[in-house]
């Protein structure tokens, strides 16, 4: 075995994480944990809760469901290393009403305005779907508010190499449209692909306290 070759499913340890609190709406008075916050946003069923469980290596931490709209509250999960992960409610499918989209963009706006300790916003999108315009707007909104937008294409286990190349091209087109690059991950909560890379990325973005 070549010692310089990276191990594909390298196990990257992640600090112990547990449920902290649920929030139904955001206001300046909303009590939030101290330390750096990282948010996870995406359409209903995009795999936010599954990804959180994979990253934290805790199967039942965030509730996963086949029925879209499972996560209705903002759920905060705190790590023993002093930073927290936030599971945001999923918003509708492309068939969802105009109002639903508007409500979601308002929630996101409120979230980004009020939560000043938010450092990174993970924008999840099922790799089997094309990347929608609202998600492009989310990247721009986060950037304007000095929050690092990170695009995560989920359920990558469902794609073949040809489809994967196509979504790589799709994301490059979005970067060209915006005029700047953003970190991009291809992950599968099912196979664990990309999870180690995401853990490393998260740990590189937060100041950890000794546990
Ligand atoms: N094949 C595959 N299925 C996945 C993956 N991640 C999630 N799923 C499935 O997708 C469905 C939705 O997953 P959730 O994690 O609940 O999605 P969510 O974005 O939290 O959904 P809401 O809470 O409704 O917003 C479930 O049936 C999961 O089992 C993945 O990496 N691969
Ligand atoms: Mg969920």
UniProtKB/TrEMBL annotation:
GO terms for cellular component: cytosol. GO terms for molecular function: GTP binding; metal ion binding. Residues 34-208 form the EngB-type G domain. GO terms for biological process: division septum assembly. Keywords: Cell cycle, Cell division, GTP-binding, Magnesium, Metal-binding, Nucleotide-binding, Septation. The keyword Metal-binding applies. It holds the Pfam family MMR_HSR1. PROSITE patterns: G_ENGB. The keyword Metal-binding applies. Its cofactor is Mg(2+). Belongs to the TRAFAC class TrmE-Era-EngA-EngB-Septin-like GTPase superfamily. EngB GTPase family. Necessary for normal cell division and for the maintenance of normal septation. NCBIfam families: GTPase_YsxC (TIGR03598), small_GTP (TIGR00231). This is Probable GTP-binding protein EngB. The gene is engB.
């Amino acid at each position: 075995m070549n010692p310089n070759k990276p191990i594909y499913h390298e196990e990257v340890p992640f600090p112990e994480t547990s449920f902290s609190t649920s929030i139904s709406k955001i206001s300046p008075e909303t009590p939030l944990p101290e330390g750096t916050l990282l948010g996870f946003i995406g359409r209903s069923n995009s795999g936010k809760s599954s990804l959180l469980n994979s990253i934290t290596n805790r199967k039942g931490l965030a509730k996963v469901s086949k029925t879209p709209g499972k996560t209705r509250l903002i759920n905060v999960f705190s790590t023993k290393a002093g930073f927290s992960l936030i599971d945001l409610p999923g918003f509708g499918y492309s068939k969802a009403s105009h109002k639903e989209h508007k409500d979601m963009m308002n929630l996101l706006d409120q979230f980004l305005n009020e939560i000043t300790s938010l450092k990174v916003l993970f924008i999840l999108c099922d790799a089997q779907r094309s990347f929608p315009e609202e998600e492009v707007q989310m990247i721009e909104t986060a950037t304007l508010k000095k929050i690092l937008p990170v695009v995560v294409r989920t359920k990558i286990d469902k794609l073949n190499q040809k489809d994967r190349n196509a979504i790589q091209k799709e994301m490059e087109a979005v970067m060209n449209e915006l005029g700047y690059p953003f970190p991009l991950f291809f992950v599968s909560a099912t196979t664990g692909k990309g999870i180690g890379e995401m853990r490393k990325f998260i740990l590189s973005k937060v100041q950890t306290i000794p546990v």
